[in-house]
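S.,

As promised, the 1,1-dimethyl-prolinium run. Input:
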Amino acid sequence: MGMWKSSVLFVGLSFVLVTAGCGQDDSSGDSASVSGQLEHTITGIEPGSGAYQATEDALSQYNNLTGWQQESSSAMAMLTSLENAISNEEPIVVSAWSPHFIFAKYDLKYLEDPKGVFGEEEYVTTIAREGLKEDKPGAYTILDRFELDISDVESFMLTIQDQEIEATAENWVEDNQETVNEWTKGIEDGGGTSVDLAMTPWDDQRVSANIMKVVLDQKGYDTSITPVDPAVMFESVANGESDASLAPWMPITHGDLYAQYEDSFEDLGKNVTGAKIGLAVPEYMEDVNSIKDLKSAEQ
Ligand code: PBE
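Predicted complex:
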C-alpha cells in the first residue's frame, strides 16, 4: 500500500513538472526538446510486470537513454497519463503491449527497437501443475485445447471498458459455440470439481481467465480465479497451489520466471499468438520513431 501511494504521488508530481515544462518556449518539436519536455521519463506499469523489467533492460542497454528513468505505477495510471498527454497533445513515452485496446482507441506507434530488447513476437501460453492431467482430466483437456484469436481478445478488452466482464464472457461463449464445442468435445461433466486458475492482473488475462471460467463451469466444474503477480503465478502453479494459468507471456516478457520454474509445471501450448511488448508514443510525435530517437539527458 505504501508503495502504491507513493507512486501515485510521484505520478502526480511528474505530471506537474511535465506540464510546467510545456509552458516554456520549448515547442520546436525536435526530439531533443521533446526528450526534455518528457523529463527523460518513460511511463511504465507495475514493477512486478515483465514489461517493467524489459523497460529497465532497455534503459541500461541503450546508451542514448543515459539519465532516463522509468516511472513505475500501474496499467491504470499509465492509461490516465496517456489520456492526459493526448488530450493536450503533449509528448509521452509509455510501456505498451498488444493485445490492448489503446491501439484501437488512440493513434499510437511502437518505437523501433534496433537492439531487440523487447523481442519481436510474443505468445501467451497455458501452464498446468504436475498431476493435473491425472487428477482432473476433463479440465486438463479443455485447458489444453483452449486458444483465442488476438483480435477477439482485443475487441473483448474494448467491450469491458463499459460492460461487466462476467456478462461479456458469457456472451462470448454463446456467440462462439462452435469453437467452445471443440474445446469441450467428449469431456464428461466435472461433477462440481474445483479448478483454481492463477491470473495476472492485466485485462487480456482477465479476458482469457473469465472465458475459461464460463466454459469450465458450464461443463460442471467450479472455477475460481486468483489475481497475482507474474512471479506468484508461476510459483503457485509450480508448487501445486493453483491448477493452471493462462497468463505466461513468452519468450521475453516472463522468460526469466518461466526458466526458473520450468521443471515444475507442464506447458500445454500457446493460447494467443501475435502478442507484443514495447515502448509506444502518440503518432503526433513525428520525430520520434525509434528508441534511438530519444535523446540522452546528458546532451
Ligand atoms: N503485460 C500484459 C504483462 C503480461 C500481460 C504485458 C502487461 C507483463 O508485462 O507482465
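The domain at 3-120+277-293 is CATH 3.40.190.100 (D-Maltodextrin-Binding Protein; domain 2). The mean pLDDT is 91.

- D.
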